[in-house]
């Protein structure tokens, strides 16, 4: 299931306090989705990495109570005591079986030791699949049966929409638009330490922002996404130098056109990114006017990307002309 569908589904289950488990390969944004859901709802979010915990970290430490002459459990301070939120149990199936047993009680009974989870809190868990070369333990069937399970897939269009909203470097968005298969290159059978994932492309974005010297750029980006992908990406970056002037297009509605596919992908992303940074009606009209002379598939890409980012254009007279020309591609 792709990220946008997962967000809708998990959001509904969080509302009903139904425990959910999110499966997926490493680096594809499982924890980010859950955190964004909590932020969008304006509720708390606690991220527990169970693979790093001991059983007592969840259950607490026993102590002697003088009044009752019994042993009680002192619950950990990091568990929520009030309010609403999502308790995110990450890497649940990478945790030792004894830790999973403590989590089982929390998920099943919403309590562990002396601790009880407040009514306003939902439980969401996540983990890597058993075939992903991570350290995993088979989840006991009784525990698995306590969750609604989803498997997250990598979807390029979902990622591009997220990247535009996050202000990811347009060179990265352009490259992934051009080379869809390089968004995610993880191979469980490979021993390569570096591979491309949505998470590692975030690292590339940070590397580009760091203004690291050009002499080191290949080696550093290779450390994030792998050598072959890094070489291909840096070769693509050179394409940006062959683009027509984007600001001139947005100011006048005219500019040069190219027949090179890599240039057109870079130009499409560059135009959308530039418009989103400063959106005004006259710039939209100029952009649409320019796309009337563009190769049809790239004209459609530009308009669809703008619409996905919340730009309305039905009021534009140029858009009416655009629809007449490209309506056959929208059917």
Q: Can you describe this structure?
A:
- By secondary structure, the chain is an alpha/beta fold.
- The chain has 15 helices and 9 strands.
- The protein has helices at residues 3-15, 30-41, 55-59, 97-109, 141-144, 156-166, 170-178, 198-209, 214-225, 227-237, 246-252, 261-277, 281-291, 296-308, 317-330; strands spanning 20-23, 44-49, 61-65, 70-74, 84-90, 111-112, 115-116, 120-127, 148-151.
- The strands form 3 sheets. Strands 2-5-8-1-9 form a 5-stranded parallel β-sheet, with helices on one face.
- A hairpin with a 2-residue loop joins strand 6 and strand 7 (115-116).
- The longest helix is centred in the last third of the chain and has 17 residues, at 261-277.
- The model has no long low-confidence stretch (mean pLDDT 90).
Write the layout of secondary structure elements.
Elements: H1 3-15, E1 20-23, H2 30-41, E2 44-49, H3 55-59, E3 61-65, E4 70-74, E5 84-90, H4 97-109, E6 111-112, E7 115-116, E8 120-127, H5 141-144, E9 148-151, H6 156-166, H7 170-178, H8 198-209, H9 214-225, H10 227-237, H11 246-252, H12 261-277, H13 281-291, H14 296-308, H15 317-330
Parallel strand pairs: 1-8, 1-9, 2-5, 5-8
Antiparallel strand pairs: 3-4, 6-7
Helix pairs in contact: 6-7, 7-12, 8-9, 9-10, 11-12, 11-13, 12-14, 13-15
Low-confidence stretches: none
The major sheet is characterized as:
5 strands, parallel
Question: How far from one another are the termini?
Answer: 25 Å
Element pattern in H and E: HEHEHEEEHEEEHEHHHHHHHHHH
Mean of all residue-level pLDDT scores:
90
Count of beta strands: 9
Task: State the strand order across the main sheet.
Answer: 2-5-8-1-9
Please compute the radius of gyration using only Cα atoms. Answer: 25 Å
Quote the beta fraction: 5-15%
Q: What kind of assembly state do the chains in view correspond to?
A: single chain
Helical amount? 40-55%
Structural class: alpha/beta
Shape: elongated
Our count of helices gives 15
